[in-house]
Amino acid sequence: MFQNTVYPLYHHGEYVIHHTPGKRWDSFYTWDSGFIGLDMLEFSPKTADYILDLYLSDKDNKDYAFLLHGSPVPVHLYQYYEMLQKASDKTELYKYYDRAKMFYDFLAGKINGSTTAKFKSGLTTTFEYFYNCSGMDDLPPQVLMYKNNLQLKTAPCISSSQVVRTAKLLSVIAEHLGKAEDVKAYSEDIKRISYGLQKYAWDDEAGYYSYVIHDENGEAKEQLRSESGENMNKTMDGIYPLIAGITTDEQTNKLLSHLESEDEMMSKVGISAVNMKAGYYATNGYWNGNVWFSHQWFVWKTMLDIGEADFAYKIAKVALDSWKREVEYSYYTFEMLSITTGRGGWFHNFGGLSAPVNIWASAYFKAGTFNLGFDSFCENYSFTDDFSRFSADVSHYNCKDSVMLVVMNDKNDYTVTVDGEKADFTERSKGTIEIKIPSDKKHVKIGIQLV
């Protein structure tokens, strides 16, 4: 990750150092860069800050709302949220808020002539800016959409879902900054786009959300299907409203049944980009038939949100074990893993989208680490120097039992308190503690101390 660095790249009038997913690509990459930023937060917060600063724009920049090259997945906004989570003194980081909001506002179709919100359905699309909305190049619905020349009439799930989820993240930050009008605007965006996803994209029979085709007037027309009538989005894109946090309990259960099924999406090396029982699943694609770690990170965080700690751990453990096998055999850090063979493939010194393996290793095995889902926000925290005591104030923004994951010194035994009361917890492995944040709690004080 640290070695995939190139210089010079020309950036808005100056030459800059760039952290790239691989030296083969001496250019900017938006969503890869966000994952590199998330990874650098584990090892070099200063580098993470540099990456965020590089990709965000500002009000004086009339050329772009954010630095775009490649798929417009707003990972930098998640990086920003995580940087705030891990900082007890957030003062300096709050200064990035207005710049982060520009990124969001463009994807929401609200500034700089953005066309992402052109449909009357409330759904958003980024196909006028790049051919690939999700980073999943050969995802079957996207391939069929282009084959039928429907790209200017189609809304995928991920674009709308990412706007909803990042609206929720930025709303938390805006609330802390006292920006009530921004909070109201985010709420309106969330309501409008969520309605569109539920009304037009959900396919109850398939148990997935769909690519939605619109007519010439921008009205939702139909869901994208194969010639045989099969929903084309039995894919990672089709589960994305779960990550946005807008699904009903019934929808959540259906989507989880796909994700957790070893016959459908949970392969022996991780979550498949495409349901393995779908008629369009292939074994020899780039994303289709392979496992990448990037979108699995979003699923993992969501599992912490909804209290699915066992599945969250399975996602991380399967990824780490699969990665370890390949690296020990070849000493290469490939882009992805083949579901058929379990072996790595494509570029051999890859970073970026593989960053979650480092995040998961820290999340479960590195003392002094804590993690929350997207719907929780750490106001402040402290570890003792020997990682034998931990305290945190956490705000909780959903009405579900969520999980806080904390790694302590593994030489000791611990007790946990929630709001001063002794609480049950799960010790996933020695020193790795999973704490329930109750659904009815808006704010909690978490404490971990020696027995």
Write the layout of secondary structure elements.
Layout lengths: L4 E7 L2 E6 L10 H14 L1 H11 L19 H11 L5 H4 L2 H11 L32 H8 L6 E2 L1 H20 L3 H22 E2 L4 E2 L2 E3 L5 E4 L16 H5 L4 H12 L5 E2 L2 E2 L18 E2 L2 H12 L3 H22 L5 E3 L5 E2 L10 H10 L3 E3 L4 E8 L6 E7 L5 E6 L6 E5 L2 E3 L1 E5 L2 E6 L5 E8 L1
Antiparallel strand pairs: 1-2, 3-6, 4-5, 6-7, 8-9, 10-11, 11-12, 13-16, 14-15, 15-21, 16-20, 17-18, 17-21, 19-20
Using brief descriptors, characterize the structure shown.
451 residues; Glycosyltransferase; alpha+beta; Immunoglobulin-like
Description:
The chain has 13 helices and 21 strands. The protein folds into two domains: 4-290, Glycosyltransferase (Alpha/alpha barrel), CATH 1.50.10; 375-450, Immunoglobulin-like (Sandwich), CATH 2.60.40. The longest helix is centred in the middle third of the chain and has 22 residues, at 180-201. Strand 19 and strand 20 form a beta hairpin. The strands form seven sheets. It has a five-stranded antiparallel sheet with strand order 14-15-21-17-18, with no helix packed on it. The protein has a four-stranded antiparallel sheet with strand order 13-16-20-19. With 451 residues, the chain is an alpha+beta fold. The protein is globular and about 65 Å long.
